[in-house]
Amino acid sequence: MQATTQPAQSQDSIQGLRAVADPMAPFPEQLIWLRRLKRMTTKQPPARPLRVALMGDGTLHFLADTLRLWLALEGFQPDVYTCAYGSFRQEILDPESAFYAFHPDIVWLFATERDLDLQQVSPGASSDRCEAAIVGAADEWRNCWQQIRRRSAAIILQNNFESSAVRTFGHYEAAVPWSRSNLVQRVNSELSNRAAEEGVTLFDLNHIANTFGLSGWREDRHWYQSKQPFAPNAFGLVAFNFARLVGSMKGTMRKCIVLDLDNTLWGGVIGDDGIDGIQLGDGPEGEAFIAFQDYLKSLAQRGILLAVCSKNDAATAKEPFIKHPAMRLRLEDISCFSANWENKAGNLRDIARSLNIGLDSLVFVDDNPAERELVRSELPEVAVVSLPEDPSGYVAALAAGCYFETTSFTSEDEARVRLYNENSLRESAMNTASDLNSFLSGLDMEATTGLADSYHLPRMAQLLAKTNQFHLTTTRQTEPELLALSNDPKSWLRWFSLRDRFGDHGLISVAILRVESDAWIIDTWAMSCRVFSRGMEEFILIEMVAAAREAGAERLIGLYKQTAKNAVVADLYGRLGFAFDGEHEEGAHWVLDLSSAKLRTPFIRRTKKGEVMDLAVAR
Amino acid sequence: MMDMNSDLLERLQTIFREILDNDRLRITPATTQAQILEWDSLAQVALVMAIENEFQVSFTAREASTLFSVRAIADLIEAKTIQAQETANRG
Fold first, then answer.
1. How does pLDDT run across A512-524, given as a tens digit for each residue?
2. pLDDT single digits (tens) A214-227
3. pLDDT, tens digit, for every residue of A337-347?
4. How far is it between the farthest Cα atoms of chain B?
5. Which chain B residues are within 8 Å of A61, Cβ to Cβ?
6. What's the gap in Å between the CA of A423 and the closest CA on chain B?
7. Of A45, A215, A276, A467, which alpha carbon lies 20 to 30 A from A122's?
8. Closest Cα of chain A to B78: distance in Å?
9. How far apart are CA A161 and CA A205, in angstroms?
10. Which chain B residue has its CA at the smallest distance from A222's CA?
11. Is there a contact between B53 and A27 if contact means CB atoms under 8 Å apart?
12. Does the beta-carbon distance from A62 to B53 stay under 8 Å?
């Protein structure tokens, strides 16, 4: 859950707090977040009241505090009751108790392995004795549920038991019927059977303890010192899981995962690297992407919808789904396929509309922090997964969100997937405008340009060799050719780099112009697809215009030579204000009159740093 | 401890304010539990955990049962920190 980027919202809102609060953070931080929540002065969105009774042994005060925090972050207005110390059984048996007077919506029977009393199993007990003790323990809890049911209509949640911390027999423990580990495991199994029969929801405390790490979970000094039922540093994780489970019962379950493609489902960029060049299958990266796809597929098989939202041409984006032998996901797994060059926030709206689900049903998965930030700020209802840089962590990052909790699984769930697929309008128009300007200005972009020096030459050649999409004439000048051009007074050769508040994109564009007396000709212009549509096109054009004007030129002529992959820039010059001037042998000609050209790039600052360095090095 | 490290006192003050939920609270080395209304036994548990977390130290049950003044807390943190440094140096 570690957020790699912190959204700009203030912590004086539920939204802002949600962005920083981390279930894995130590308990004191959970407590501080709860204090912030209580002190919020701004008006918060309406929340649904929820009354939770937390019933168990030990000191439940701080666990209850942590629960208040996570229930509020889940959209509830929680009221949490804790039983008097050491008396949860009495309160359940007493119809006049404060517990029943509280009128809970949910009762959480917070048992831990410590509470599991199996003393009647003496060392060497026969398997009959063991069986009787196991059945007896499970029945005792069922009796509790039945008592509660008699007096309350509350939903009941029951913990199962964590693995025991010590094993008397070491690795032989499981072979001994009366060993503690063996008994605990069998009680858990009996308990799940009874819970299913009685309509009680099992809370898998055992799994959470294992995920957290059993040795850290059993930090027993907190039990001895102040009777905390388990390590307080795991309170956040337990409370978060509970809030998500309860949220799903109350209808806030997520239904659809919206996936980016390049560097999310495979390594590399399909438009540039091609079907043979993307990382998928063999190799450490390729295997990690396969594992992620397998996990997504298993979620799809239980009824979670998958959608694609990618900045790509549709045909290019679909190619791996159809042709790549290692792909686990196929087109029929995708309920809605959106591949275009529009703003992703608008595309997410269209995906939700075409699947007929709410934005609050979507989980957005994208490796690009800038896209995640756009979605966070434009569509706060959408859950955004903070993917780590390394794809090997993708599965864990998605799983940690607990987005798909459920308390049932029916054949209707399976059928729903197919139904949605049929209903989806795959080629729906994606044009909902979003507040793009405020997003761009928030990126805090800074661009640098410079001459071809020995440091930048190899990178320039590499960009020209690799780029297919934003590459107007798809020329592939080599390093020696670029070096020659940089010494030719009839050529204007520049690289461009861009950084934003998420980091440095490095060298992202190369432009080569032929200098003629009255016109400058844009012979080569390539740019990395990571930075399309952010104003960088305008920024680079402004540099070209300024240089050409200073040299006394009157016109700028842009060339475009169509290939199978560069359709995305077919109309680039038209969008930038050039006039079409017919097809020529070297490609389409577009003309810009320098006397009247007006260009702006309000969101990108120009820094001189790179240029100063380059003047010193070049020529 | 004769002269308390002011950085240490500042960090303790932040913890006391956050955990006891009182922005105006001022502590000095001489402050004791009896002088602060909010510093009850429950708050003591949370304070000890917050101090452990902030200073990356761990108190034994016996040590935790002695921490009822700011001076006692600061002394123990310093002793623990020095101890940790020595262990690190030996390693």
1. 999 988 999 999 9
2. 999 988 889 988 89
3. 999 999 999 99
4. 44
5. 42
6. 52
7. A215
8. 21
9. 6
10. B61
11. yes
12. no
Consecutive H or E run containing A452: none
Residue A525: φ, ψ to 5°? -150, 115
pLDDT reading at A498 higher than 70: yes
A35 touches B at CB < 8 Å: yes
- Amino acid (one-letter) located at A129: R
Q: Enumerate long-range contacts of A130-134, CB under 8 Å, 24 or more apart.
A: A130/A177, A130/A178, A130/A182, A130/A183, A130/A186, A133/A183, A134/A183, A134/A186, A134/A187, A134/A190
**Residues whose CB falls within 8 Å of the CB of residue B3, separated by 6 or more in sequence, listed in order:** none
**pLDDT at residue A293, as a whole number:** 97
Q: Which residues of A405-428 are buried (b: 16+ CB within 10 A; e: fewer)?
A: beeeeeeeeeeebeebbeebeeee
Q: What is the secondary structure of A411-432 as a DSSP string?
A: HHHHHHHHHHHHH--TT-----
Reported pTM: 0.69
By the CB < 8 Å criterion, does A216 face chain B?
A: no
- Whether the per-residue pLDDT at A389 is higher than 70: the answer is yes
Q: Where are the beta strands (DSSP E) in A441-502?
A: 445-450, 491-500
Among chain B, residues having any CB pair with chain A shorter than 8 Å are 15, 18-19, 21, 42, 45-46, 49-50, 53-54, 60-61, 64
Please give the Cα distance from B47 to B18 (Å, whole number): 9
Contacts of A400 (CB under 8 A, 6+ apart): A1, A23
Inter-chain touch B50–A35, beta carbons under 8 Å: no
Whole-angstrom Cα distance, residue A227 to residue A256? 41
Place A417 in a pLDDT band, splitting at 50, 70 and 90. Answer: low
Taking CA atoms, what residue in B is nearest to A228? Answer: B45
Could you tell me which of A161, A203, A166, A217 has the C-alpha nearest to residue A185?
Answer: A161
Q: Which residues of A touch B50 (CB under 8 A)?
A: 28, 31
Q: CA A492 to CA A488: how far, in whole Å?
A: 8
Among A212, A252, A161, A295, residue whose Cα is nearest residue A23? A212
Helix (H, G, I), strand (E, B) or coil at A77: strand
Quick one: which of A179, A170, A168, A194 has its CA closest to A118?
A179
Q: Which residues contact B6 (CB under 8 A, 6 or more apart)?
A: none
Q: Which candidate, A112, A117, A220, A114, places its Cα nearest to that of A160?
A: A112
Q: ipTM, 2 decimals?
A: 0.90
Overall size of chain A counted in residues: 619
User: Is there a contact between B53 and A221 if contact means CB atoms under 8 Å apart?
Assistant: no
Mean pLDDT of all residues belonging to chain A: 87
Percent with pLDDT over 70 in chain B: 96
Cβ atoms within 10 Å, residue B81 = 14
Above 60 in pLDDT, residue A427?
no
Q: Is B54 within 8 Å of A28 when comparing Cβ atoms?
A: yes
Question: Chain B within 8 Å of A520 (Cβ-Cβ)?
Answer: no
Chain B residue at shortest CA distance from A28: B50
Say which residue the tokens 């009762």 belong to.
Answer: A107
Nearest Cα to Cα of residue A37 among A64, A71, A60: A71
